[in-house]
Amino acid sequence: MLSFLLLFFSLLSSHQPAAVSARCTTVTTTKTFQKCMTLPSQQASIAWTFHPHNATLEIVFFGTFISPSGWVGWGINPISAEMTGTRALIAFPDPNSGQLVLLPYILDPSVKLQKNSLLSSPLDIHLLTSSATLYGGRLATIHDGAAIQIHATLKLVPNKTKIHNVWNRGLYVQGYSPTIHPTTINDLSSVTTVDLLSGTESSKHNNIYTLKLVHGIINAISWGILLPIGAVISRYLRHIQSLGPAWFYAHAGVQLSAFFLGTIGFSIGLRLGDLSPGTVYGLHRKLGFTAFCLASLQTLALLFRPKTTNKYRKYWKSYHHFVGYACVVLGVVNVFQGFEVMGEGRSYAKKAKEDKLRREGVLGGSVKEIGSSNS
């Protein structure tokens, strides 16, 4: 239990918005932009200059590879803040030459459902210029952690100052078809709406992040801490005669508190599902529903608790123990599953590596250009 508490609080202290752990820059080796913003995931950022008089946007996306054979993409969704419908520019090593290439893609619903491969096609937006530049410091190759800049100049709809940015990265490219990206919370929340004039992010996405954080904290406390403590109280304190019925009231109080908080966390999870259409954490969702149903049955069982002299008391106890332990196990497992989808399970080694690359000039500020692709 102590090790779990230490892990829980260390994860909470490390899970801060990307703006805390990375800073944006308006300066590249070829251009200086007017504004910049740190994006909420993947240590990514953007910088831009917007010309209202002719609705022209000059923008650069700063991202990193997660595999030598992987891809990095950025794009704009002209309709809504989601992956489907995004007009994207995706950079990856050419399978024939190994040089960096940048190709346009339209992410239609069939791609999201993985029914069809993602094939390059001309964009139906006013893309004036585009290019990609890879920077590597002393490590001038495409590798895990290599920093890339994707530049684009677009003609926007007049009087339109808000754009939906979508970005991501993946491990492999089959031919010229990027494969599906990882599905941690950081990878599934890589979308934001930006006001080009004010340089601010849409409050909706900030609210979603806050809800996710509250959802994680409440459920970790209820399912990961209080529920096991309640089980321990019942398992070990009931045999201490001097406590009398105090153990039962302590057990019931802790479990009811866990169920109350768990209900709040569960409700927030349902709300997050409504706010994130198309984003489904299959295993996490199924475990959550199962654990909540079992906890509800446990709570209702208190209303039908037979007296100690009742002949059905032994069957009730067997049911209560089985459902209770199953609820504890599923709850704790789902807490760690929640950490996994949040990407925290493997974040420490990667963060250390990214810090090292940043000190070398690989991340967040480029010093050596090794290749580019223009369209």
TrEMBL record:
- What is this protein called in UniProt? Uncharacterized protein
